[in-house]
Write a structure and sequence with these properties.
Elements (H helix, E strand, L loop, with lengths): L2 E4 L9 E7 L6 E2 L4 E6 L4 E5 L4 E6 L5 E5 L3 E6 L52 E2 L8 H7 L16 H10 L17 H10 L33 H5 L14 H16 L2 E9 L1 H12 L15 H15 L5 E3 L4 E3 L5 E3 L1 E3 L2 E3 L2 E2 L7 H16 L13 E5 L18 E5 L3 E7 L2 E15 L5 H16 L7
Parallel strand pairs: 5-9, 13-17, 17-18
Antiparallel strand pairs: 1-8, 2-4, 2-7, 3-6, 4-5, 6-8, 10-20, 11-12, 13-16, 14-15, 18-20, 19-20
Helix pairs in contact: 2-3, 7-8, 7-9
Organism: Microvirga mediterraneensis
GO molecular function: dihydrolipoyllysine-residue acetyltransferase activity
EC number: 2.3.1.12
């Protein structure tokens, strides 16, 4: 049977994607690891790698097609022994057809059972570094009856279908991938299935794969998603204004996703806010000293130039290590306490926002953080970030100081437990030793998820941050 190539889920929030370009044409040989297509998501343009070998027999969805649902059939690969020219695209909801195999001397097993094309609203696959398409194979009649429905890994004979990332995580954790319950298309095991098994202790090292779906444990029921309030429809809003007095700007995928996640965040995350002022005189003096010490190339360009935001990221990362209970995220029925400080950095781009994550920021030097943020911000503006570069993290920094904003409240990006809003540094008059004094200061506001960070804990985190900002030499040792 031909191998189905499905529209992959390139990010946790992706529901549809644009098939921007095919990098292979019909009749080309495809090897595992070959880049076969470019997919545009609401966040970026990503390359899709092959995980199976064969000949690209049929392109079902032509390049340039927009809004292709996740898990929809986009192409067919002829496997070894199949004639690519004889493979035809299936009718809607059908399976690809191929000529029956030639009869062997011994009686051949019954023809494989046709697998129906997965629906667009099937649970999407995992977001790994290089996204791969799902493979849908069929077993001979006997094994097919045993492996049908939602068995662990949807085994075909002795083969278990799982994404490369899921296999790697299972291998590193020392568990048998075949004992994990798959939730992907046709029972395929994806990243979240392995992590769920690890958290719940459902998968065991060395466990034998489930023989049939009937013997596999039923997935635990998930809590119902909260009902979100609906806003006025387009026609209702337009009726409030005179015809011709406005221009309609259609939403692109990124803006739709941002709107959806912001509404979910404000309606499902109980925000509260803590603000304080940080003096910057010592930090600005140290920043100038460090930047002046930077080496220069033959054109006189310095090797680095630290920004105030680089110090803010480093200070928040160290503060999270000093107040570890605040370095946490909400996970529905539990709290996950992070070992490292993975700090997101809000980057404004045309039409939206990215939040690339600086991993293990507490371990990195200020110059390393500065270089990493510059690199990721540049690629974010070109929509070339990989999903793993803008997912995860326990907190984020949103800095509007360069626009002269004194203070503001940022919206938490779930599942983060906090986000720090940074205002402009400015000269202010304060009282020191009973007398007025002029200092340079900025206001920061910490938005907290009250389910994860209580008021006293948030205040402790901000106090640790303030101490580092006002005594910045502590970030250099």
């Amino acid at each position: 049977m031909p191998i189905n190539i499905l529209m992959p889920a390139l990010s946790p929030t992706m529901e549809k994607g644009n098939l921007a370009k095919w990098l292979k044409k019909e009749g080309d040989t495809v090897k595992s690891g070959d880049v076969i297509a470019e997919i545009e998501t609401d966040k970026a343009t990503m390359e899709v790698e092959a995980v199976d070998e064969g000949i690209l027999a049929k392109i079902v969805v032509p390049e340039g097609t927009a809004d292709v649902p996740v898990n929809e059939l986009i192409a067919l690969i002829a496997s070894e022994g199949e004639d690519p020219k004889s493979i035809t695209a299936p009718a809607a909801g059908g399976a690809a057809s191929a000529p029956a195999p030639k009869a062997e001397a011994a009686p051949a097993p019954a023809a494989p059972a046709a697998a129906s094309q997965p629906q667009a609203n099937t649970v999407p696959g995992d977001a790994s570094a290089h996204m791969s398409y799902a493979r849908v194979d069929q077993a001979p009649t006997g094994p097919a009856q045993a492996a049908k429905s939602n068995g662990a890994g949807q085994a075909t004979g002795n083969r278990v279908f799982a994404s490369p990332l899921a296999k790697r995580i299972a291998r590193e954790a020392g568990i048998d991938i075949g004992s994990v319950q798959g939730s992907g298309p046709h029972g395929r095991i994806v990243e979240k299935d392995v992590r769920t098994a690890l958290q719940g202790g459902g998968a065991k090292a060395g466990a034998a794969p489930a023989a049939a779906a009937a013997t596999a444990p039923a997935p635990s029921a998930k809590p119902a998603a909260p009902q979100l309030a609906s806003s006025m429809g387009a026609d209702q809003v337009k009726a409030m204004f005179e015809a011709g007095s406005y221009e309609e700007v259609p939403l692109d995928g990124m803006r739709k996703t941002i709107a959806k996640r912001l509404v979910e965040s404000k309606q499902t995350v109980p925000h509260f806010y803590l603000s304080l002022d940080c003096e910057l005189d010592a930090l600005m003096a140290l920043r100038e000293q460090v930047n002046n010490a930077a080496g220069k190339d033959k054109d006189g360009k310095p090797a680095y130039k630290l920004s105030v935001n680089d110090f803010v990221i480093k200070a928040l990362a160290i503060a999270l290590q000093r107040v570890p209970n605040a370095n946490a995220v909400w996970a529905e029925d539990r709290i996950l306490k992070m070992k490292h400080s993975d700090v997101g950095v809000a980057v404004a781009i045309e039409g939206g926002l990215f939040t690339p994550v600086v991993r293990k920021a507490e371990q990195k030097t200020l110059t390393a953080i500065s270089a990493e943020v510059k690199d990721m911000a540049g690629r974010a503006r070109n929509r070339r970030l990989k999903p793993e570069e803008y997912t995860g993290g326990s907190t984020a920094v949103s800095n509007l100081g360069m626009y002269g904003i004194k203070d503001f409240q940022a919206v938490i990006n779930p599942p983060h437990g906090t986000i720090l809003a940074v205002g402009a540094g400015e000269q202010r008059v304060v009282v020191k030793n009973g007398a007025p004094a002029v200092v340079q200061a900025m206001t920061v506001t910490l938005s907290c998820d009250h389910r994860v960070v209580d008021g006293a804990l948030g205040a402790e985190l901000l106090a640790a941050f303030k101490q580092l900002i006002e005594n910045p030499m502590g970030m250099l040792v």
